[in-house]
Amino acid sequence: MYTSFDFTNLAGFVSAAVFAMGPGFGVLRAPSIIGRQNTKLMVLAGERITAQRAYELGMVQRVLPDEDLLPAALALGERIASHAPLALEVGKRMVNRGIDREEVRHSIEAVTMLYSTRDAAEGIRAFAERREPHFEGC
Prior knowledge:
Blueprint (H helix, E strand, L loop, with lengths): L1 E3 L5 E2 L13 H10 L1 H9 L4 E2 H7 L4 E3 L1 H16 L3 H13 L3 H15 L2 H11 L10
Parallel strand pairs: 1-4
Antiparallel strand pairs: 2-3
Helix pairs in contact: 1-2, 5-6
């Protein structure tokens, strides 16, 4: 989510430029984030980009100085960890799988399952009582 670069550092994919594609998980997701043409430029031509360009393309959410990276990452982790574990799991799965016609059915099933959990009841109760929820992951 976060990356630490001064603006002279470069990012890129292992590419055809060095005749090594590897498993290519970044390459598989890149077109949906930065577009096919930018992905092709980086993969096929071995184009490397600055951290600022990676930010502009949406590859990273923030570019931070080295000294700010760890505190920002820890704060984000704490914020995420304070949410309902099952809802996080389902939300992450839904985002990573994408939403098409089949996924709509899956999404409805997943949300229905979530609302039947004790965590859902606790979240609603905590909201109504204006307090922090205490999630158990069940």
